[in-house]
Amino acid sequence: MKITLRMIILAISITVLTATPLTLHATDAYTTQESTRPTGRRRNLPPEPPPAGVDPTRPMIALTFDDGPGRHTAQILDVLEAHNSRATFFVMGDSITYFYETIERMHENGFEVAGHSWNHPELTLLTNEEIRHHIIGPHDRIESVIGPTTQIFRAPFGATNDRVLRVAREAGFALIGWSVDPRDWELRDAREVTRNVLQYSRDGSIVVLHDIHMTTAQSMERAVPKLVERGYQLVTVSELFYYRGIALNPGQIHRSAPPRN
Ligand code: ZN
């Protein structure tokens, strides 16, 4: 059989496309209830968010979605947009090429897009230079699509150590953890995920979810309207911290914002 250049390119494309989901270990099992304390310092506040009808005196929650974009992301955007809500998406650098339009849509509708590494390695096992590559690279790729954006990052598996934090600090990135893990990556059951989201989310929570699962998208169909009905404003991570007057300091992990009072 004659192997043409076209066949080789096709084979490489298929390898890349099929290999990508295998690297998306949706097992961010690291979890904590620890809160970020207000530092009193106001440096590195995110830029003032565009007017989005947020009332700072009312409770707010930051839903976050990791490991995408994927084929269920649009369904999640649909339901959030229908309820005048936003969220932060921590995307895989390797997936950006295939989802330019999705990322543009997120940006145009006020969602926040940030990096979650190129392909989900555990950063604590990498060299400093490799860690930099996974923090800065996807961010630059995102900015090439939507323009300048906040320097926040979520570590794969939430796995960090002093070295990862130091590299992040030197690169100027704040790390975003979470205070609520509804375990959508493990349960894969829309009703259970919905129940966990509704039971554990409260004012100031950062909720970790994964937009690569159909069951997570299905869960949002019910959880989002219910949270809104309960009076929560669904905002991006940067909006949450902005409205609470807390700096997103480079090299620090932010896991939630304090409640209003
Ligand atoms: Zn992840």
Task: Set down the secondary structure blueprint.
Elements: H1 5-22, E1 60-66, H2 73-82, E2 88-91, H3 100-108, E3 112-115, H4 128-146, E4 152-153, H5 162-171, E5 174-176, H6 184-187, H7 190-200, E6 206-210, H8 214-229, E7 233-234, H9 237-243, E8 253-254
The structure holds zinc ion.
Residues 28, 66-67, 116, 120, 156 line the site of zinc ion.
Structure description:
This protein has 261 residues and is α/β, with parallel strands linked by helices. The protein has a domain at 38-113 and 178-254: TIM Barrel, CATH 3.20.20. Helices cover 40% and strands 11% of the residues. The protein contains nine helices and eight strands. Strands 1, 2, 3, 6 and 7 form a five-stranded parallel sheet that branches. The chain has a three-stranded parallel sheet with strand order 4-5-8, covered by helices on one side. Helix 2 packs parallel to helix 8 and helix 4 (128-146) crosses helix 5. It is globular. It starts with a helix and ends in a 7-residue tail after the last strand. The model is unreliable at 7-45 (pLDDT under 50). The structure holds zinc ion. The site of zinc ion (ZN) has 6 residues, from loops.
